[in-house]
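Repro case for the chain-ordering regression, as requested:
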Amino acid sequence: MSNGVLAREWLLLRAERSFGLACLLLLALLGYGSWSGAAWQQQRLVDHEDGVALAAEAVAREAGQIAAIERGELSIAAAASAGLPHVVRTELALPPRALAGAAIGEAELRPTRATIAATTRAHEMFRFQEVDNPILLGWGRFDLAFLVVLLLPLLVAGFSCTVLSADRASGTLRLLLSQPVGVGRLAAVRVLLRGGLLTLLAAAGAVLGWLVLGAGDAAPRAIDYAQLAGVILAYGAFWCALALWIVSRNRSSEHNALVLVLVWALLVLVLPALTTLVARELSPVPSRLEYITSAREAENAANARGRELLSGYLLDHPELEATRGDAVAPFIKTFVLVQREVEQAIAPVVERYAAAERAQQRVGATLRWLSPRDLTEQALLQIAGNDPSRHARFEAQAAELRAAWLEAVEPQIISGRRLSAAEYRALPRPVFVEVAAAERVRDWLVSLGLLGLFTAVLAFAAARNFASLSPADDR
Amino acid sequence: MIAVIVRRELTDWLRDGRLLWLGAGCVALLLVVALVGWQSTLTQVEQRHSAIERETGNFLGQGAKNPHSAAHFGQYAFRPVLLPAAIDPGVSPWMGSMVWMEAHRRNLAEFRPAEDGAGQRQATGLSVAWVLQYVVPLLIIMLGFAIVAGERERGTLALLLAQGLRLRTLTLGKGLAVLAATVLLLLPVLALILVLYVSTPTEVEVTGAVPRLAWMGLAYALYLASFVGVVACVSLGARDARTSLFVLLLAWVGLVVLVPRLATDIAGVRHPVPTATEFWDAIKRGEGGSVMPGTRPEERAARLREELAAELLARYRVERLEDLPVNFTAVYLQRLEDADAPVIDHVYGRLWAAQEQQRTLRSLAGWFSPTVPLRELSMALAGTDPFALRHFGDAAEAHRRRLVAELNGTQARDGAGRAFYVAPAETWQRMPQFHYEPPPVADVLARHRVDLALLVLWALLPLLAAGVLAARRPVAR
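-- result from build under test --
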């Protein structure tokens, strides 16, 4: 019987011109979203590779010059800065993932390269970053995630809200309720056919769009595609269940449409913004202006004690007392020690900032469970590698690398010695360590599980409503 | 007759609860975002003032120091917060809030408020302007989608027209009812919000706020009127209320969400700004400068030093740099600054040109959506658009050059004959302090005259189209 209903409903749906147009529109927009996201990703990839190549070239040149000086093939005058411990630098880069352009989110706001050198202050590590137009940063990119979270539910809702109310308006609902096919099953078939088709189209369109237009130099793996499609399907299923529940309340088409639009506006536009707002108000992050002014106050204070700092350091480390032929100017030594003092002085401000940010993220992550849009967006961002936690991981690793770097070069700077080839080779090298794949899959499953839970609750509520419908309800 | 229709329609919406629930939701949202936005503005202003005070103290309290070290220590310029920014923060959360003015380098504004915490794009976008741009058009749609289509669906339209009522009068009356409901809901709330903003004693920049707010009010009135026109057109043309609602929702998605985002995206792809690597590399290579462009900074510096030494030794007819009546290092450092200035202007100029091309392309989308010109005009009037940042950045750069020249000049003059000159602590008191005046409202309007004209068109054309449709549209299919 269900197959017969399905076939009949499919014939009816095929005759609906607006549905076909909506599918075409969705596909066209997905195509553009894939292309646009891929263009962004390609630019990111080129920038990343350029940066890595330049950094590698600098390391090779430096190592070559140090070795040549040691072998006596190059004079120090010809390569004055070679091996100077305050001049050598390194860069940690965050590579874009294979589906980075599918969900860009706030990736453009976050640093992807960290410059590490003894003369680079902590807050200057991520300095030479974004030069993008703030309009693009603020209004966001036209990527797949944007289309999925915003447009897909509206289309699902729009095409599903009249699946029973139209019968009610035309007076055929009583007839339907007296048929052996349960009205719930009929409504479910209709909603699933409309909403399910749109969702399937979105998932397939996203994957195919990326395969055809998007991959570029990066090659996503099957699991990436599977995760992407899984999230879209779960989100679509949630909206189908919501539409089914609203339909099951047996009201007019106008009423159903109004409620669905209101729910859409609430869940897609208002709730995500409010949850972030609540998280921000509950755990406000201290001002960055305070951070910078505190750092400069500390710098002034430490500068005034510059000589004292240097003498104190040498008292603790007499073995580093400079010998003749000191390669490092005294003001550089003072600068390095002043920065160390500044960082110690502002450590409480930095810690307060970091703690507040962590608390805000915790509250935000908890509140996100209330918002299907946030769950979906977060899952998509994780697949794309543009989620805030990956960026936080990158920043933490950059800070660790900087600490290790300073530890390695500081004694050389104070003693005024150039680095030998062996010492240069032994400096910490930048490698970004990704979060384990299992952990990523676990987060993805949690998001999917929660979306599934919302879907199940709504489907259950709809089934109960349908079960209580009787022919007398066709009033 | 029109007054009767308006009253009747308002009564109907009150009875079916639509006006009450939608209105209450909209007003509550508006109040929440207004209060949160105001609180956030006050916090920003307070932090800015405290930072300016401390930063002034930092610069003046450097103690005895070499003037060029003071130039490297530099000063910070903090972007001002105008009162209308509380209504429309525009893209200010994504623009840096301060500029570090130091020797040798023009920095981009740093510390964007949106960087503080994740998911800020959603929260920082939540403002009075956001509610007016996104939610109020939805409210207009919900109130008005059935104004004619509903009557047609119920079969009452033919009855009304048979009684001598003209379709144009009916549409006008119902359209005015939608407008009246929107105004009645919004006006008291917006007035209350403005009173709150103006009456709170703060350090928010209020100069020029009244004309800015008045123009913003006009822009939003035109915007909302355009939606009333669109709603009337669709409801006149739709066969039933459901179709009308569905078409209007698609129109809302298209006009408010898709077209602006698509336009921004296409503009970004069509006129890309340089990547970070390209941008900083161009400055490093001295692109656009007159001194050995394309070479490494050290090479250019060495050439400049050589040329300057020869020039000064010849001018003052001495044999050694130590014998010059000026401090050679300071004159050389200033020469470097002068050589870098055209490079900075060239590379930044290219960035601004790309942003300007993006804006021009984006403005074209104003023909397809009233949201595009409204957003551009609203944030420009609020001083929260990229141009405001650029204007501020240019002022900071002009000050940076003046400050560094002054510091180098001090060293050149007072440090003559000394290898390492240390200026007394009171030197910094004589240095210029940064003052900034945002562009006057007339300049903002001149820059956005096309956007304003497009908004007027968007307000008028759908209304005219509705008039034409009402004259031609058959009662039923």
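Ordering looks correct now. The beta strands of chain B are 75-78, 98-102, 105-106.
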